[in-house]
Amino acid sequence: MTRTQDLHDSSGERLQKVLAHAGIGSRRACEELITQGRVTVNGYVVQQLGIRVRPDAIIHVDGNRVQLDETKVTLVCYKERGVVSTMSDDQGRSTLADYIEDRTERLYHVGRLDADTEGIILLTNDGELAHRLTHPSYEVPKTYVARVEGTVPRGLTKVLEKGITLDDGPVKVDRFVLREAGKKHSIVELTLHSGRNHIVRRIMDEVGFPVIDLVRTQFANITIGRLKPGQVRQVAGTELGALMSMVDL
Predict the structure, then answer these.
(1) What global pTM score does this model have?
(2) Which residue in 150, 170, 188, 216 has the fewest CB atoms around it within 10 Å?
(3) Sorted alphabetically, which SUPFAM superfamilies does this protein's record hold (predicted)?
């Protein structure tokens, strides 16, 4: 018996249908992925289109895990300025829950953004995914765009990428880009994996360029894209698979 036959379960769903249902692509596109040898089931490459798989099969496409559990949901929302990163607030302030009033799942936010910071934040009911995305050992990168006071010199890039010391210890950015240097204000982009509180504002304060406005534009592989303030979309398919792979799921 071949490995492909070992994987085949006559009572299961056809592999291309499973992939399409998981948001990987159309049925035809998923068939092409299979015949190109880009799909594995339980660690084995499958290139035959007739294979049926069990619901508990572990499937990867291009090395990224495919989420087959339909009860697990991950969303990305564009948090507006003034909204607090909680699901409820005893002071009556706007919360993340206001964005998902039509959802029946019990969702939790992955990390936080300051009330004065806008941008993307993930919501999920996948506890293991949320835990890993916020655990320091996985060093998940986040990208921010900030408008700051003053004219930022180009030499600041080397300073921040080498690292500076704050009250609670050293920190460095993974990438710093000076987008625009004006006479009164500058626009900068920072990518870092630190999850410490108010970290971007504290870094820029320390080097003498206080933040005026701050937007998180990327979390892990999830980008702000065409999302507008207050909008929410689901993370699924290959995008979700890549996110899971970043934290070894």
Answers:
(1) 0.86
(2) 170
(3) Alpha-L RNA-binding motif, Pseudouridine synthase
Q: What is the 3-state secondary structure (H, E, C) of 46-90?
A: CCCCCCEECCCCCEEECCEECCCCCCCCEEEEEECCCCECCCCCC
The single residue of 89, 98, 114, 174 carrying the catalytic annotation is: 114
Beta strands in the chain (DSSP E): 13-14, 39-41, 44-45, 52-53, 59-61, 64-65, 74-79, 108-110, 118-124, 142-149, 164-166, 169-171, 175-181, 185-192, 211-219, 222-223, 232-234
Catalytic residue list contains 213? no
Q: Name the residue range of residue 98's domain.
A: 74-137+225-246
pLDDT mean over 34-43: 92
| Domain count across the chain | 3
- The pLDDT tens digits of the residues spanning 172-231 come to 999 999 999 999 999 999 999 988 889 999 999 999 999 999 999 999 999 999 999 999
